[in-house]
Specification:
The protein is mostly helical. The longest helix is centred in the middle third of the chain and has 42 residues.
Length: 61
């Protein structure tokens, strides 16, 4: 899929959430979409599950 199509689909999902669910639903969809995008980009970059745990362990110190 092209990035333009993904952007259009995301915009439509946010519009539906905002129209039918109000502002709180809009924010929730936007936040979950951002998290999903970050995880997908990390996995596309060759990320491994054990690296994710190590990243969180380093941030606690």
């Amino acid at each position: 899929m092209s990035r333009a199509f993904i952007g259009m689909f995301t915009g439509m999902a946010l519009a539906f959430a905002g129209y039918f669910g109000g502002f709180a639903a809009f924010v929730l969809v936007a936040a979950l979409g951002t998290i999903g995008f970050a995880v997908g980009a990390w996995l596309d970059g060759g990320g491994q599950p054990h690296e994710l745990r190590a990243m969180f362990d380093r941030s606690r110190r």
